[in-house]
Amino acid sequence: MSARRLIATALSTAALAAGTAFAAAPAQAAGPTHSVEEMDFTIPAHPYYSEVCGFPIELHVWGSFNIVTWTDDSGAVTKEIRTFRFQSTSTANGISIRGRSIGPEIRTLNDDGTSELRIMGVVNRHVPGEGMVTMHAGYTLVFIDGDVEVEVDSAGPREDVALICSAFA
Q1: How many domains does the chain have?
Q2: Is the pTM of this model over 0.85?
């Protein structure tokens, strides 16, 4: 083998070894993960609505959360965005009200185990042939410490349950 070819082979081998070393080096923390959580459930007598209206109101909810999760280098979750898209049917006295809810929930987890949950969303409810019965649009900030949840801030119009009750009467 000529000296020139020997040098070229040595340089190629050195470059390959260096490239392999770089490829084997520890990687930075992985990017966020993505998942989808489907939900479909029925509550035969929704506790709050049934109590306020004075008669049982069945609630059927279906839809999904589109979830994006960030972790730190140790794999602990540091942030999660759950974008929700749900539809619902509330039924009482032979009348059904259709609903739709959309928006994100953003949860930031703190080093001390507490977290903050920001919920931004829109809820529409419609009675067939009657149009919109009620609507909620707004922002809520919740502080979470273990099983304790405290609403810290809220903005936007709230749902008027009396309108839902009257639609079922």
Answers
A1: 1
A2: no
